[in-house]
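Appendix B, example 12.
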Amino acid sequence: MLAELVIAFEEEGFVDVLGDIYMSQNFGDNHKGQYFSPYDVCQLMAKMTSGNLAKQIKEQGYISVNDCCCSPEQC
């Protein structure tokens, strides 16, 4: 399975292969709020909120991320 995932990344570039599989197999449950945002939407949100990452890495040596979608109790 890992080899297939690597092949998919090599052929498609960095795309949300696992999210597409998850949704195509109806593993999500809308009643429980389990779904994946489209990759393009995630990419747009990241660009809108990230600022100048190269500058931050140069100044601090790292960046940190708080993804409220993954841990709502921390937001």
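Helices lie at 2-12, 17-24, 39-50, 53-60. The chain has a mean pLDDT of 80.
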